[in-house]
Amino acid sequence: MAAGDAASWVLPHRPGPGGGDQLGGAPRRGGASRRARRRHLGGNAVIDPITLEVARHRFAAIADEMGLVLRRTSLSPNIKERA
């Protein structure tokens, strides 16, 4: 590879001219860049107390169930014997 070739060679998915949001010089499918598609969530989101408690208890139940499945399917005695 000659010295002039190295300067014009571009890595896909890298920032800079010819890279960034393009893959091999072709624009992304969907047209918009990843940064443009992101949603900006404000810090002023409000959730009512009932929904918050329902979600909190549901997440706790999911975590408990994951622990039970882990203990039941584990091959390690260290995990199987945990209460």
Topology (SSEs and partners):
Layout: H1 3-8, E1 22-23, E2 26-27, H2 34-37, H3 49-73, H4 77-80
Antiparallel strand pairs: 1-2
Uncertain segments: none
What is the chains' assembly state? single chain
Assign a percent range to the helix content.
40-55%
**Sheet with most strands: strand arrangement:** 1-2
Distance between the termini: 62 Å
Query: Main beta sheet: strand number and arrangement?
Result: 2 strands, antiparallel
- Secondary-structure element order, N to C: HEEHHH
Number of domains: 2
What is the strand content? under 5%
Q: Tell me the Rg in angstroms.
A: 25 Å
Put the structure in a nutshell:
This protein is 47% helix and 5% strand.
Folded structure, characterized:
47% of the residues lie in helices and 5% in strands. By secondary structure, it is mostly helical. It folds into two domains: 1-38, no CATH class; 43-83, no CATH class. Strand 1 and strand 2 form a beta hairpin.
Please describe the structure with a list of short key phrases separated by commas or semicolons:
single chain, 83 residues, mainly alpha, two-stranded antiparallel ribbon, 4 helices, 2 strands
